[in-house]
Every structure is written in C-alpha cells, then in structure tokens.
C-alpha cells in the first residue's frame, strides 16, 4: 500500500513526480525570497549603476539599502508614521521613537529627509514663586527679571521645566479665601501664598528663585530631582526654604495643617507653622547652590553691600556673580579641556572656526564682581584664572574621555568633498571615481572603533555620541554650513556664554576669523594646510553652502549623487542638524506656552517682558 500523506488532516496521495515538483517550487521560492530581500539585510553602501549613458555614470536614486526594499515583493505596504507636531525647523525634520538607535532613520520614518531622534526626556517641572504685586522701581524689576532668566536657564539646561508662579496661581487656589480671612503674620502670609501657588500646580518641586543647580548633570541630587518621584514631603537641611519636593497629596496635607494648626499664630514661615515631622529632612545637597541673604552676606560681602546701597545695581551684581559661578562650575568639570574635532585636518581649519570660536568663549573667564570666589556649595572650586585658560585642542578623532568636552562640526558630504579635495566644482564622475565613501565618519571614529568596521556600525556610535544620555552634557554638535555657532547655546549650557567678553582686565574683543592667527596645532592631530591652501578654504566653504541651498537642477543632481554615495556621512549630518533643531523647538514651544502666564493677570505687555526677562532670541 502506498504511503499516505496528510495535509490539514486529509489524506492526500502524491506521486513521486509531484513530490519533486513541490520541492523544486519550494526551492525556487526560497531562492527568490533570498535574492530580493537580501539588499535590505547586508549593511553596505549602494552599488553604483554600471550603466553609463553619454559618458556620465548615473547614480541610482536609492533611498538607502536598509529600508524595506521596494524590490521585495513580500514587503508589506506600510504607511509612514504620523508626522509628529512641531517636528520641522530650519530645513530639518524629525520623528521621535525609542528605536532611534538604528543606523538609518529612513528605514523607520520612510522619508529620506526625516531623521529619527530619541524621545525627548520628560522634564519635571520646578516652580519658583515671584511676587509680581510687590512695589519695585523699573531698574530693580529689570535686574530681578535678569536674575529670573538666569534661574530658568540654569534649570532648563539641567533637564527641568522651570516655571515661575505668581500670586495669580495662589489666588486661584480654593484655600486662598481661607488664608485671607485669618489673622496671621505678614511674613507667614507671603510664605503661604507661595505654598498655595505650588499646591495649585499639583506639587512637584518648589525652589527659591535664588537656588541654582550647580553641579554635573550626573550629580546624585539633580538625578534624584529629575526622576520626578518623591517619597514623602522633603526638605533639605540648611537650605531653609530653598527647596521642597513632594507629591500633590502630601503638599495639600501640609498646607491644610499650616492653615488650620494652632501653632501658626506666631509663626513667621511655613516651616515653623507645621509640626517638624511633616517633612523628611535630607542632609546632602551638594548639587545646588543657594544665594539667600544669609549666604550672600557671609560669603560675598561686596555684593551684599552693593544690594544694601542700591538694590537694582546690587541685584545685577548678584546675577553676574551667579552666572560666573555656573560657568566656573562647568569649567571645573572639564579638566582636560575642550576638544574641537577636526577629522580631516588638512583642509578644514576654516570650517571649524565657529566651533573654535565657541570653545574660546567657553574657556574664557566670565565677567564677575568677585573674580576668585567660589559657589557656596563648592568652596574648594578652582576659580577661572585668565593666565591659565581651559585647554583647547583640535584632535582628529572623537574620544570618549571623562573630563573632555567635545564640540563637533559635521560637514555635509558635499562640503567635505569640496574642501578635502580643494575642488570648487564637483561632478558625478569625480564622485564615482575619486571620492572615498563616508570618509568623515570613518576618520572620526577611528580611535574608538578602529578600522575595518562597516559604516552602519560607526553611525550608531556617532548617534550615541550626539544624542545619548551621557553625550548631551559632554558634547555639542552642529553642522559645518553655518557662519556662527548657534546663538541660543546659553540654554544648552545653562549660563550666559561670554560672547565678546573681556578677561576682566583687557578690553580687546575676540578677533574675527580673518584676523585670528591659525590656532596652535599639535602635530599629532594631523597635517596643517599650506598658507595658499588655507587661503582658499573660505571661498570653497562658501561654494559648498551655496550648493546646499541651490535649487538649480545641476546642483541638486550632484548633491543627490553625493548623498547617495555617502549614506552614512549624510545620515550623520542630518541627524546632528535635526537634534539641535529639535532642542531649539522644544525650548521655543515651552516659551510660547509659558509666556501666556507671565506676570499673572492684569499686567501689560511691557511688565510681562520685564517679569520674565529677555527670552533668549
Ligand atoms: C527631501 O529633500 C529634497 C531636497 O530638499 C527634496 O528634493 C526631496 O523631495 C525630499 N524628499 C522627501 C521624501 O520629502
Ligand atoms: C561614553 O562613555 C560613557 C560612560 O563612560 C558611556 O555611557 C557612553 O555610552 C559612551 N559613549 C560612546 C559614544 O561610546
Ligand atoms: C561681538 O563683536 C563683533 C565685532 O567686534 C560684533 O559685530 C558683534 O555684534 C558682537 N556680538 C555681540 C553679541 O555683542
Ligand atoms: C508648533 O506648532 C503650532 C501649530 O501646529 C504653531 O502654531 C507653533 O508656532 C509651533 N511652535 C514652534 C515653536 O514651532
């Protein structure tokens, strides 16, 4: 009896000829699948079409080989992900997804121009209370508004969402009427307003507007505060009313106790009015610096005297002091100095000028009323000394070293091509014959990854170095096609970068690129240009910028060809550009939302501006 085969439980009879036909078909199917899906599995660059029409090679308009290949007939048809709100800025666009660490964004965004960025980190709100109803003259108001700006900038840079509350928030608390009806000390009432405003916002963090984060991003206290979850109502020993943390229910309970407890009759502050066990008291607070009157009088008598003589001028002086401490704290973190990356050293001296300029500003001593002073939370700091500025180097390779701040300049492959070859016109045959693929990225990561790795492995490291958790506080990257460093980096660093600052003694401004001597160069970092070649760099860079913006068919074609030839370098360039653009949009959106509330109700525009300080333009 012939053997019975079964399919779906039903017996079928297969003749030997049919079996071999079935096997043959299966084999064909497997081969077919393998053949057509392979291009999306092997991480290599695209191969150039060999078809050469009228002397010119045509470069296939391949998006990239990693995207679900269009040739793959079994590829499910996918909709591109929904475009997220506010995800375009200055020619950049992006999407956000937790799978961001993939070599090529377009395999997820399905749009060659849309970069895939890591999700934005949740910023826990930190509130401070500013009494806009108190009487002040204009100069004092302006000085205080500048100080509030410093406060907001410092907390923003550390990953928080700083929000300034006003009596308006306190008055919309249902408990406000109860407070109004009571006979209490004025000081207590003022303090209570602050708590009512905070309670109305639903708890979280309440800081004094003279309390600043002054430590590394990784500082334990700052990390704890950033987590946004607080066990119990916490205050910090020795910080008085500088900082509180707690969830809404705990804050509400404490406010009720303070309003209804008998102890409050003589109390002058919230802390006095509630039983001691209301708070869990934490002892360590090295990460924050508090410039309350007590501290300023003790440590910075010069500033305290200035405040005593003229409130506006004194407050302004305090603002300068705080800003200088924030800057010095940053400088102290980077003991090995600043690395301005220069992966193809021969002809990129002019290209990295903006990065070098930024490094110079960062390394300078900030303006300060008390040059050798230290922040109150770190009396053993090393103050900035003009004769020993931070070290600036221009290494060719990216190094992930503690204590080294990295400023990266990412060129578009066209820019890199034109500068590196000193060619002012690039055409498709040249790209095909002479351009080394993804050279910039390969050079950049040579020390970290060695040679012989694929571009897709390098791009992952690059993305980690730009946008990783650790990276954002240790580096900043921008594209090479800009004349100046981005102008809102103050918000990235958390202090006012001394543009055109003096070192406290001489009044000479930083010379512009045309007058600046070529920077000191460590021979280890690679060759430097000959003078005549150096002289050509500005014009070549300008040409590259023009091509980048050009709509001429010829330029667009070359640009597309060069992007297709250098997929990884292009991906890096888009990624760095989108990452910085998104950081700006995040801040602009927050400012847009917050400006509605500025100064509370009943304030005219001018007052609003002054209560909120200058928005970083
Ligand atoms: C990407 O940008 C280029 C040039 O800006 C444009 O020609 C192209 O159509 C864009 N692609 C998509 C999918 O939007
Ligand atoms: C750099 O080093 C830090 C810690 O030492 C690590 O978390 C980070 O992932 C490293 N970055 C890269 C790009 O390797
Ligand atoms: C810095 O100085 C240059 C020229 O000395 C000037 O053009 C520029 O506007 C100044 N920048 C700022 C922010 O003051
Ligand atoms: C965000 O998008 C809204 C409309 O979608 C727009 O009105 C607003 O200006 C955008 N904000 C920024 C900062 O781009």
Based on the model shown, name its key terms.
617 residues; alpha/beta; 2 domains; 6-stranded mixed sheet; 4-stranded parallel sheet; 19 strands; 42% helix; disordered C terminus; binds 2-acetamido-2-deoxy-beta-D-glucopyranose
Explain the overall architecture.
The chain has 617 residues and is an alpha/beta fold. The chain folds into two domains: 125-290, no CATH class; 315-607, no CATH class. Helices cover 42% and strands 11% of the residues. The chain contains 23 helices and 19 strands. The strands form six sheets. It has a six-stranded mixed beta sheet with strand order 9-8-10-13-12-14, sandwiched between helices. A four-stranded parallel beta sheet has the order 17-16-18-19, sandwiched between helices. Strands 5-6-7 form a three-stranded mixed beta sheet. A hairpin with a 2-residue loop joins β5 and β6 (92-96). α10 (293-299) packs across α11 (301-309) and α11 (301-309) runs antiparallel to α12. The longest helix has 29 residues, at 567-595. It is elongated, with a radius of gyration of 30 Å. The chain starts with a strand and ends in a 5-residue tail after the last helix. Mean pLDDT is 81; it is low at 30-71, 501-517 and 599-617. The structure holds 2-acetamido-2-deoxy-beta-D-glucopyranose (NAG) (4 copies). Residues 85-86, 585, 588-589, 592 line the site of one 2-acetamido-2-deoxy-beta-D-glucopyranose. The chain crosses the membrane at residues 21-42. Residues 502-537, 593-617 are annotated as: Disordered. Residues 513-537 have a biased composition (Basic and acidic residues).
